[in-house]
Specification:
Layout: H1 2-13, H2 16-36, H3 42-57, H4 64-91, H5 96-105, H6 109-112, H7 115-131, H8 136-172
Length: 173
């Protein structure tokens, strides 16, 4: 039994594709974490994992068009991220100032850490509404909309990241 296991491990670990995939996994995992906590560039890290795989295992299975497609998915992910928060604010009756405040509020992640990504858009939308002279009730309503938009954006980016990874696995199989 031990001989079989040693033979299996030696044959498997001799494959550069296995090493490339193992090297890509931390990037992919960090990318998914980065989608929830945008202090990390989520979809970019996922694509970096694909690049690491290619550098180790070779680019036989993944082409330039694969990376072009991945780049388009990355751009789509960032567009969804920005638009979802603004959409949430507008859907709950917020003004453009609240939408911009929510988007700018995401920068609080750099001050407050991971909690800033949840609190930032909420506070930004509230401050934007208050600056425009709205009542506190409307400002809180807009802030809640920004939070829902953020959650929707994270869900959409998770789906985009899932498509990216599924495409990668399909390409290397």
């Amino acid at each position: 039994m031990l001989d079989w296991l040693q033979t299996f491990c030696a044959a498997t670990l001799a494959q550069t594709h296995v090493w490339g995939f193992l090297a890509a996994l931390p990037f992919i995992a960090a990318g998914f974490v980065g989608i929830v906590f945008p202090a990390l560039p989520g979809t970019i890290l996922i694509a970096a994992g694909f690049l690491v795989y290619g550098l180790i295992a070779g680019f036989d299975n993944i082409s330039v068009w694969f990376f072009v497609g991945q780049g388009l998915l990355i751009c789509l992910g960032y567009a969804v991220d920005l638009l979802a928060t603004a959409w949430g604010v507008r859907k709950f009756g917020g003004s453009k100032a609240a939408a911009w405040g929510a988007v700018l509020g995401t920068l609080l992640v750099f001050v407050l850490g991971p909690i800033g990504i949840l609190v930032g858009p909420l506070l930004g939308a509230i401050v934007g509404e208050l600056i425009m002279g709205e009542q506190l009730k409307q400002a809180l309503h807009s802030g809640f909309g920004s939070f829902l938009g953020f959650v929707g954006g994270v869900a959409a980016k998770m789906m985009i990241a899932g498509i990216m990874v599924a495409w990668f696995v399909f390409q290397i199989m």
